[in-house]
Design goal:
single chain; 510 residues; 4-stranded antiparallel sheet; 2 helices
Length: 510
């Protein structure tokens, strides 16, 4: 009877879940019977608002409508439009979500932009006036950069970040929906793995800021191998070209200051890109027929090569439809740069910024300020040779506790961080490593406590000390102090050493 009752309960649960799924399926179907994607909004709702007027902005990406009458730009996570002659900006897409990098479609009727209003960053579309915003991509574990349109207005190009591969690749999305198409494979002749600040990883190309040629045959983009590392040396990025007919990828530039954020003139004859020059960033023009290059403007907005460049290496800019000027942000203003002379003129604007603020996420936690504190993290526990005691590191200090339920007590009174305890074979002493901003050493202390003895003569990075079976030597790992201090771990040259353990003498490094 009990078994029959259990099966009846399971059957009832399945029927309830099934009915719920059926209701959900019916709610998600449109009038033609096909599933209809619904745009989910952010779970947090604005509870406050900060308002102010401004006539400048930082890192604004902008575009001009095909008829040359309207400028669209992002400012503090919202999207605005102004007349091409300047004036008061109108916020067309905004709210508590973060919108950025708007681009007009070739017919001027639609905008592609990036938004996290669905709870994760995605590629979105809207009408040119900001109405009818809807997501074009559905995945929730990806990032996107720098959308742009193909000349026929059917596809949107974008750099897409895949967390599992840890790289940005080029994708095309049909404006009417779909899962997208990846363009080009990994760059050839690259090592399988490399070390970076987070450890071993596959080494692959990162591709930013795709733009299509006016005839639609090529896609231009900036590329580098890897995405981020400390103390980089230029050049990092160069402009590459993808042939849509053959899938061939070729390198166009060899700029010493890197080459980033390409745009093409409306006639397809000229390429403009950003490059580092001296201590600033400049724009350079390349004749695609002859390969000749000339400087256009220096300095412009500083590029973002030294970071991961999560909003691309430069804010978005564009040619005006007639090809006579380049529309860009310059010193926080909106500027038209004459393509021949490089002389800028400024377009005045004002924006009434309305920054919505979500409710504060505040959680109260009890802080234990009693004489005794419960350690929540025990590190490097080491059992004594007789199995009666355990040494460990907690709260950055060395402790010993009798087993099974003794009271832990400090072994030293040192103010340095104490880690990785190792028992001597006779159980009478403990070796451990220290670490502070000045570096660290290998120390030895009596298992009964007392004043520790420094066994190393020079501060460095030491780890994993271990006694030899006869107790006369300690084997350890060591490396340069400065590399550990600045966390440049992929450069750390660690090696194993051993040294004698005299009763009352300092250790010499082997």
């Amino acid at each position: 009877m009990m078994r029959a009752s259990l099966w009846l309960r399971v059957l009832a649960i399945l029927l309830i879940v099934g009915c719920g799924c059926a209701v959900l399926a019916q709610e998600d179907e449109s009038e033609n019977g096909k599933p209809e994607a619904k745009a989910k909004e952010l779970p947090l709702k604005a509870t406050d608002k900060v308002e102010f007027n401004t006539d400048e902005g930082t890192w604004m990406s902008l575009d001009m409508s095909p008829d040359g009458k309207t400028i669209v730009f992002d400012l503090l996570g919202d999207i605005y439009t102004i007349p091409a002659s300047g004036g008061a900006a109108t916020r067309i897409i905004g709210g508590i979500s973060f919108e950025s990098q708007p681009k007009f479609s070739p017919d001027g009727k639609s905008l592609a932009f990036l938004s996290d209003r669905g709870g994760a960053e995605a590629l979105w579309l809207a009408n040119a006036d900001g109405s009818n915003p809807h997501p074009l991509t559905k995945d929730r574990n990806q990032g996107f950069l720098s959308p742009s349109w193909t000349p026929d207005g059917k596809w949107i190009l974008v750099s897409r970040h895949d967390p599992s591969a840890r790289e940005y690749s080029l994708w095309m999305y049909d404006k009417d929906g779909g899962t997208g198409i990846r363009l080009g494979g990994p760059a050839p002749h690259q090592p399988e793995e490399e070390e970076d600040e987070t450890g071993p990883r596959r080494r692959g190309p990162n591709r930013y800021g795709p733009v299509a040629s006016p005839d639609g045959k090529f896609i231009y983009f900036a590329q580098r191998t890897g995405l981020f590392s400390y103390n980089v040396q230029f050049p990092l990025w160069q402009i590459h070209r993808f042939d849509r007919r053959t899938s061939e990828v070729s390198t166009l530039t060899e700029a010493q200051g890197s080459a980033m954020r390409p745009i093409l003139s409306p006639d397809g004859k000229f390429l403009v890109y950003a490059t580092r020059y001296e201590t600033g960033t400049a724009l350079k023009v390349r004749d695609l027929e002859t390969g000749e290059e000339r400087w256009l403007l220096h300095p412009v907005t500083r590029d973002d090569q030294e970071s991961v460049a999560s909003r691309d290496l430069m804010p978005g800019y564009t040619f005006t439809p007639d090809g006579k000027n380049i529309l860009m942000t310059l010193n926080g203003k909106i500027a038209l740069v004459d393509f021949q002379s490089g002389k800028p003129s400024f377009i005045p604007f004002t924006a009434n910024v309305q920054a919505e603020i979500a409710p504060r996420l505040h959680f109260e936690y009890k802080v234990d300020d009693s004489p005794t504190l419960k350690a929540r993290l025990i590190r490097w526990p080491a059992l004594s040779p007789d199995g009666k005691r355990v040494a460990f590191s907690a709260l950055n200090k060395l402790w010993i506790m009798d087993l099974p339920d003794g009271k832990p007590h400090r072994v030293t009174q040192s103010s340095e961080g104490e880690f990785m305890p190792a028992w001597s074979p006779d159980g009478k002493s403990i070796a451990y490593v220290t670490w502070s901003a000045a570096g660290g050493n290998i120390q030895r202390v009596s298992a009964e406590g007392g004043e520790p003895q420094t066994l190393t003569r020079r501060s460095a990075y030491y780890s994993e000390p271990a006694f030899s079976p006869d107790g006369r030597k300690i084997v350890f790992i060591t490396g340069r102090r400065d590399e550990q201090l600045y966390a440049d771990l992929h450069m750390l040259e660690q090696h194993t050493e051993e040294a004698d353990v005299p009763d009352d003498a300092m250790l010499e490094r082997a």
